[in-house]
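thread: overnight batch results

M.L. [08:02]
morning all. the overnight job finished for the chain we discussed friday. pasting input first so we're all looking at the same thing
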Amino acid sequence: MKRSHRPVAVAAFMLAAAGHACAAQAQDEPDSGADGGDTGPGRCGAGGQCAPGLTCCDGRCVNTREDMQYCGSCVVACGDNADRCVGGSCACESAVACPDGRLCCPGAGCVDAASDARHCGGCGVACPTDQTCRGRVCVPSACTPPCGAGQSCCGTACADTRTDRANCGRCGSVCGSGQECVGATCITPECSPACGAGQACCGGRCATTATDPRNCGRCGNVCPDGETCEGGRCLCGGRACLSGQMCCAGTCVSASSDPANCGGCGAACGAGMRCVAGECLCGTSVCAPGEVCAGGTMCCPAGVDPCGAVCCRMTEKCCSGRCQDIASDMNNCGDCGARCNPLKTDRCVAAQCRCGTAGACRDGILPFPLNCQVDDFSGPQICCSARCSPVSAERCGNCTTTCPSGTCTGAPFLGCTFSCG
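M.L. [08:03]
and the structure it wrote out:
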């Protein structure tokens, strides 16, 4: 941790001066209270008095646990290797202060401003893509092609100074035997023997951070389900998913709005439903298990047929956009479009075409074309008055045609055609 220490003699002189200044102030300024002066977080009171928890430094009452100018004591000021004072110690990004020679940059932590092309000479000072940082100055890169983001040109090769043991923190800074470069700092890992090249010690185990989905890029960085670790990055089908997306079968999807993956991979919404905030909705409702969505607005009970924006009844089916009772409708008997022959039947009962209480009347039983002959024993029948009766001169083709000649003849045309002869 970098701390700037003033020489002891100067510190003593300043403390003495501060005491004289406080005494002089007590004489020159009017008394503001019974305790002899202001003891708030401003100027020190009489005799260097401050409120509890504050310390009189250079004539001011300060909190040495938080003040970067007086961190821990009146003679310690945090430098540019820290961005805060925590508990009386200088810190960078809630961790310890950077080693000597490093800068503490917002969002980046400890950086080497002498070689980091993203912070060359100061935080946020980025070199052009065809230049590198040397001695805190952007110069033409000796690396071809130019180094990518997060890398520095060390000699003629690109190196990631955050993890490269041969260039840890800055070019040429070599970690000792058994050490690893973590966060641009050489550390002695917990793993023994030391991990090999391209590996990091993660929880006492060597991990290849370029491909390990549980330690991708760094220890403890777990890739979401379905993603793989490639080159130290969690990817889905070769690309990084955006915030709020998840990886399903190698594709980044929004589980909050994708009806094919609503709330999770493969969780598909039913027909007519939409995915809202990871839930399948029918209109504004969540259908119960087994229910279906009618017209995108109404949940229908399990086992019924949705038809447009309505739910059919249990014995109904949606036929041409309308609910039809397939148990009794002669035009849709048993299924949509299953029409009962009005010459052979007179009703639909339990989804079957019937004549009275019997089944449908028979066709002629002889082979074609003899099956059209008028014969009481083998000829075709028609349904009249809820009974199957043979075609005859009294019922020539239908129940109401009577042949005055007393003769009805059948011909094989479009089935059987009957006429009086």
